[in-house]
Design a protein that fits this description.
The chain has helices spanning about 25-35, 60-65, 75-80, 90-105, 130, 135-150, 160-170, 185-190, 200-210, 215-220, 225-230, 230-240, 280-300, 320-325, 350-360, 395-420, and strands at about 20-25, 45, 60, 85, 110-115, 120-125, 155-160, 175-180, 255, 260-265, 270-280, 305-315, 335-345, 370-375, 380, 440, 445. It is of the alpha+beta class. Among the domains are: about 25-90, MutS, DNA mismatch repair protein, domain I (3-Layer(aba) Sandwich), CATH 3.40.1170.60; about 265-450, Dna Ligase, domain 1 (2-Layer Sandwich), CATH 3.30.1490. The strands form five sheets. The chain has a five-stranded mixed beta sheet. Strands 11, 12, 13, 14 and 15 form a five-stranded antiparallel beta sheet that branches. The radius of gyration is 25 Å and the shape is globular. The chain starts with 18 loop residues before the first strand and ends in a 9-residue tail after the last strand.
Length: about 450
């Protein structure tokens, strides 16, 4: 009896990784088009009204052909593409479609990592007997996402996550590309060094001063010199320019026995918002800080976690002259303050108070505030609450009663927001934002309303 015909991957050396990188093209614009099929093929810009000072968050490829690319101001996008259709974006639809795509990918392998709102990694190394070669699985994912979800995706295939991501760049928009194992080296050498993850403007500019423009050029630089120049990121660059990536794809989601999509608890929770126009009134900055912490604390309790550390960051408008910027392009204008909590915490009021205290300790500048953000780190599971049966004094008793009261309030508010929507239940600390930010059931409309969470 003849043995079954092996596919291309069947002839690869044992242990060769088969990693897929799935990226939704122009995610927020594609979500809008999926929800409103009449927009198919049209120039769609996500970010809000062209009369606002917001920037383009996403745009369809028809809009990009006119120059309306993400990152430019909406007014500029309107000038470049006057026939474009401008939309605010739909956070609910974006979350629903992301979850549906995650479920689709979990049919191929349980090792699916959702690395951002529109970015996924799959390890199908041990699933090729079930789904065939990696290319066959990638093509089925590509077609199924288009036919069932109406989402255009690009799929890259490589032997490790780094190579899969680089292949995904070749596949965009809306294609499938594979870097064949054993043949990646020559292709990597010819890549511009800016194509490597981790090479941003600062590192790219520094490398350019030494005529290092391709990955092949970067390979001529010793590990020691890269470390001396860039620290730990230099060691990462040394490996990436050789196609080395030892990271693994860890499952971030799974479907439980009740057919519910469950996310792995996060290692940190971060929320931030940019003021547009920039804000001079510090009471509104404090209100935004409180609102962001409310959202972060709600997410924290939703995962059954507690935070051991709180961080606040504040960014001012850059008031330096062009000459000063050129002489010191990385001068600090974003200030951060972090503090470890004496007792792990998940209460909104306590976390807001910690954040406000950190805000008062940050440097105050005579400049407008551009952005404010919060972060909860050192997350761990909630161990439950226990109070003393015999309190030593009335002060301890009052403190325990206060904590218990605020835990009940948090629980009641979380339940109401789950039923009615986050924006229909507000705390007094964030109420001043009503003056400057539109409010709907999802919450205040921030600079990135379609990603409000």
């Amino acid at each position: 009896m003849s043995s079954p015909t092996l596919g291309r991957d069947g002839h690869l050396p044992s242990g060769t990784g088969r990693i897929l990188h799935v990226d939704v093209d122009a995610f927020l614009a594609s979500v809008e088009i999926a929800e409103h099929p009449e927009l198919e093929g049209k120039a769609v810009v996500i970010g809000g009204s062209p009369g606002s000072r917001n920037i383009v968050m996403s745009s369809s490829y028809a809009a990009r052909a006119c120059g309306a690319r993400p990152g430019i101001y909406l007014a500029e996008a309107k000038r470049l593409c006057p026939h474009a259709i401008f939309r605010k974006g739909d956070s609910g639809a974006a979350n629903r479609l992301r979850d549906r795509l995650t479920r689709l990918l979990l049919h191929f392998t349980p090792r699916v990592a959702v690395t951002s709102v529109d970015d996924f990694l799959l390890d199908i190394t041990d699933a090729t007997r079930l789904h065939g070669d990696a290319m066959q699985a990638a093509e089925r994912i590509h077609l199924t996402a288009r036919d069932e979800l109406r989402l255009p995706v690009s799929v890259g295939i490589g032997a490790n996550p780094l190579l899969a991501r680089l292949a995904g760049k070749i596949a965009k928009p809306g294609g499938v590309a594979e870097l064949l194992p054993g043949l990646e080296d020559a292709w990597l050498r010819a890549l511009p060094v800016s194509a490597l993850p981790g090479v941003g403007r600062s590192i790219g500019r520094h490398l350019g001063r030494f005529s290092i423009r391709t990955v092949g050029d970067l390979r001529t630089v010793s590990r020691e010199l890269l470390f001396a120049s860039f620290g730990r990121p230099g060691l990462v660059l040394f490996e990436r320019c050789r196609g080395i990536d030892e990271s693994t794809v860890e499952a971030s989601h799974w479907v439980n026995g009740n057919d519910q999509l469950v996310a792995r608890p996060p290692k940190s929770i971060r929320r931030e918002s940019t003021f547009e126009p920039e804000e001079a009134r510090f009471d509104l900055v404090e209100a935004m800080l409180a609102y962001l912490m409310e959202r972060a604390a709600t997410k924290l309790r939703g995962h059954g976690l507690m935070a051991r550390s709180v961080e606040v960051n504040l960014r001012y408008v850059d008031t330096r002259t062009e000459k000063q910027i050129k002489s010191s392009p990385v001068a600090a204008k974003t200030f951060r303050k972090q503090r470890k909590l004496t007792v792990p915490c998940d209460g909104t009021l306590a976390l807001v108070e910690h954040a406000r205290k950190l805000l008062t300790e940050l440097p105050r500048r005579r400049a407008l505030v551009k952005r404010v953000g919060v972060a909860l780190t050192g997350l761990g599971e909630t161990a439950g609450w226990q109070t003393n049966l015999f309190n030593d004094n009335a002060e301890d008793e009052a403190h325990n009663a206060r904590d218990d009261r605020h835990r009940r309030i948090d629980s009641a508010v979380d339940d109401l927001r789950e039923k009615l929507g986050f924006g229909l239940v507000l705390r007094g600390s964030s109420m001043p934002l009503i003056e400057t930010h539109p409010l709907d059931e999802d919450g205040f409309e921030l600079r990135t309303p379609s990603l409000n969470q």
